[in-house]
User: Fold these one by one.
Assistant:
Number 1:
Amino acid sequence: MLDQKLIRENPRFVEENLSLRGKVFNISPIHKLTLEKKDIDIKISDLQSESKKLSKLIGLEISKSQNNNSQVIHELKDKGNEFRTKIAELEEKKRILDHTIKKEILSLPNFPSKDAPIGKDENDNIQIKTWGDHFKKENLKSHLEIGESLNLFESKKTTKISKSRFITLIGNGSRLERALINFMLDIHSKNGYLELMPPALINSESLQGSGQLPKFSNESFNCSNDDLWLSPTAEVPLTAFHRNEIINTELLPIKYVAYSPCFRREAGSYGRDTKGLIRLHQFNKVELYWFCDPSKSLEAHRSITADAESILKKLNLPYRLVDICTGDLGFSSSRTFDLEVWLPSSKSYREISSCSNCLDFQARRSSIRTKIDKKNQYIHTLNGSGLAVGRTMAAILENGQQLDGSVKIPDALVPYYGSDFIKTI
RNA sequence: GGAGAGGUGGCUGAGUGGUCGAAAGCGAACGACUCGAAAUCGUUUAAUAGGUAACUAUUCGUGGGUUCGAAUCCCACCCUCUCCGCCA
């Protein structure tokens, strides 16, 4: 959420910064409303002040005279009633304004960082570096073919259970998924992250706090009976964990790692990645999350990205690091580095982690602050996948495939998986 | 799901219509005493928004209502605790 005061006092600055996203933002209607609201705020405050004084006076008069119904007291009460009516009128106006303004502001995305490359869409993203040896032979099998031949997962029968874009992991597939989750959690825990296991059902306020609501209600599953939603990413409960808190500065940065199932409706992606592990309504993810001192988030961003990268390195999966351009940034993010893993069957890179610095955008929505020089300041939040588990499995299957049809498990994962190769049973 | 109790500042806890933003205690900060410390004594100490400031407003779980005036009365909701039932 952007600062309402900034919108009121410097609307052009706000428009210019938002427009870096490649769309035109006209905030002059909200700007006008914020001015109106400020004006009403002042009027209400003045009236309340007078009305309060009057009430005290009435109290005094009543205690002085034994007669509660004297002419004087009646007149004073009438005057009090006038205040009440006026204040009620203004408050009604203010309530409508507040509601409208908040709705509008909650639908505005974060400012892109001035360090982010300027661009329109994903084609303008900039590759920063590549890592690892690419496996580029011909006739490589896709992770879907490998998974089917080794009986690691199943999607056709799964439509009976739920519907398309769900998967059932089987045998070694399930074991590999578990191994990956534990492997990632262990590495990050050793690296200074505190492990949390948050609920998968999330209330509306939490989704609003991290930026999924009100604008993207289409993208999450909703349990309408209960004002609860299936969490699309652990980023949501992790942000909400400290909602409405003032965090002691000495505790910062707070670093969490959380494994969670993630649920996404994938509205608008019909026909894309319909097969395999890449785009599912439900998938597992290990998420990294930082609450940090506002002066230190740039450094933290590099750090969280490096922590996500460390998993790819340990698993010996080739990847590249991409700097997301202003037009392709997520709603809450000011700067995002994507990690894309190499999938040899399609000779392409695929997003496996997205590491974002949201600055104070989520903290403002969620009211998470810290006291700096006796003043409350919004902290900065950062999130990054570390990593998306299903896509990691896909990458291991494709990059580790052997001529005999088996798959080599990366050395670091062997203790978790329990053997060196996945073979047909 | 049934029955009951309760939600007040950093914490404990008093407050049932009028200088109550809230007694008292604990805690914390500062000062005195001390070579230093403990103990003791004294002073200070809620948050949020707006304002350079003086100051103004709001806040006693949340939202409504009654009233000139609500922590206090009324209504709805949320949450916590205890007991019973059910349950992985």
Number 2:
Amino acid sequence: MTFDRIDLKILDILQRDATVPVARIADKVGLSQTPCWKRIQKHEEAGVIRARVALLNPDALGLSLTAFVMVEAIDHTAEWRTEFLTVTETLEPVRDIYRLAGTHDFMLRVVVPDMPAFDAFYDTLTSSIRLRSVSSVFALEQVKACTALPLSGLFPSPN
Amino acid sequence: MTFDRIDLKILDILQRDATVPVARIADKVGLSQTPCWKRIQKHEEAGVIRARVALLNPDALGLSLTAFVMVEAIDHTAEWRTEFLTVTETLEPVRDIYRLAGTHDFMLRVVVPDMPAFDAFYDTLTSSIRLRSVSSVFALEQVKACTALPLSGLFPSPN
DNA sequence: GCTGAAAATACTAATAC
DNA sequence: GTATTAGTATTTTCAGC
């Protein structure tokens, strides 16, 4: 799949604000409405646009504690990994799961209301699966939150 | 600000899929269209709904390397912090900035196309501001990605 | 690939209940 | 809160260049 400058511009607008009407996007990228709409449609079908979602304010909802939990596997079998993912994917506070390079095997981004809730999560995690080590990092504040990808550094495909 | 079950349900629907029309949301939460639309409007004005955005697929755009960079401040003055935030907020690959509790002071989520790009970012960062220590963790794969907040564990406000 | 316009849908706001 | 209405905006499709 290739992207020209116009594609990147369209995607960049939408990943910042998905409420911008197609007519205005078309105007900004120098296209008329129909071809612009068709490109967006194509990107949606191809899965380049994964979803359109509303971003909520965690503090307003009392979800002000974010923790990053780094985990070492007890062994490196396929069975352990499968079980680990099955357990963590179904745990409510786990928002993201990253498989890591280096000494730690996985990192979880965990969102909970407060420390007692984190403690409860920690108990559930450690009693659900055996781990070699767990180390948690707590965020006091999220200074910047950005779901958009850094597209401006990308070169358009030469096709 | 208080949220009843209906508010939480509405927000949960929108944070998973913001394309669902108000009529269908109203139907799902057992409200008619007008009050449902007014609640959504209220949450948008109050900033509970921060934004509506499109989520893009990083791999499709050649942005497959995510790194978490943990930083220790060289000192704990207000000046250092201000400068650090000024520098990092303007660096393209930096998507999120967390202020941490513990030995490390900040963690950055960094998204780049590949290792050379990360190397370039690292050079820019370390030459822009003095740091006591930097340690990076690299993600091989993002197994789960979820921007939605875990609302199902929340109790509705008793009002 | 593009333009322009029509049709279908959804949103927004106001009404009376 | 509901139901209905109407006007506006947007999305989507359909012709033709």
